[in-house]
Amino acid sequence: MNPFVMGLVAYGTFSICDASAKYLGPSLSVFEIGFFFNVFAAIVLTFTRHPEERWRDFWRMDRPWFVHGRAVCGVIASMCGVFAFTTIPLAEAYALIFLAPLFVTIMSALVLKEDVGIWRWSAVALGFIGVLFVVRPGFQELHPGHLGAVGCALGTGCAVLLLRRMAGGAKRTSILGTLVLYLIVLNGLAMLATGGFVMPNAGQFAILALGGLTYGLGQWALIVALRLGGASQIAPAHYSQLLWAVLFGVAIFGETPGILGVVGLVIIAGAGLLTVIRERIRHGKAARPVI
């Protein structure tokens, strides 16, 4: 099984989940969507544990602060992401959320003191230029949903940094179990506290199930892809979500990004792939024996 193909499956199902959230946005609250999505996702995730791990022991962890910190960042990213998808066009939401790898680069230099070369800084600059093409600040009104998408990118970036710091020092069941538990509990409490619960009808419940199951399936496919190959083999598949954003936006929601928007999305994808290619070259050189 090809890891890149599994990566495409993972990010394709994530995109279906995001489109489901957008579809439900006008009728259900962000917290209710998040709550039911994660309840259904938990059903799928119970089958993704490592053979040597048990879900009932997920709360036993060696590095609890990092695991809980990553879960908090995941909750922020999830809530902000659902809010963005339900309030602004998909293409604009994805353009801003795809700032996450660029934020990782910036925070790696500032927080982890990593040596970031000209290639990665060039990718950061290109990514921001691409976002400007898509969002066009000053030429259209900015919505709180745009801020939500940026919050999602920041939360995702911080979660990635914490995962790097863990460096495999925590069980997969601890990382996923803690995150899903946080998401279910906090979304549920927020839903009840804000009076945001509305009894879903049959159609809405089906979409909630679709969104949650595809999110869980995406997590499973991503885990399989990572088992089959390295992150650098899967990273290019991530940018397929930009294509799904355009296709779902046009076909389902009647959102046309326009020429400048498409150019911006291509620039964002190019910026990300530039980093991937550079990392492959760098690691390839490092792996060559010195003669």
Summarize the structure.
By secondary structure, the protein is mainly alpha-helical. The protein has helices at residues 3-24, 30-45, 64-87, 90-97, 100-110, 118-135, 144-166, 172-193, 202-228, 231-238, 240-251, 258-287.
Question: How would you sum up this structure, described in words?
Answer:
The chain is mainly α and 291 residues long. It has one domain (3-283). It is 76% helix and 0% strand. The protein contains twelve helices and no strands. The chain has helices at 3-24, 30-45, 64-87, 90-97, 100-110, 118-135, 144-166, 172-193, 202-228, 231-238, 240-251, 258-287. The longest helix has 30 residues, at 258-287. The relative contact order is 0.22. Residues 285-291 have low confidence and may be disordered.
Specify the biggest β-sheet.
none
Overall mean pLDDT? 84
Integer count of domains: 1
| Helix content range | over 70%
Estimated radius of gyration: 19 Å
Order of helices and strands: HHHHHHHHHHHH
Write the SSE topology:
Layout: H1 3-24, H2 30-45, H3 64-87, H4 90-97, H5 100-110, H6 118-135, H7 144-166, H8 172-193, H9 202-228, H10 231-238, H11 240-251, H12 258-287
Note the main attributes of this structure:
mainly alpha, globular, 291 residues, disordered C terminus
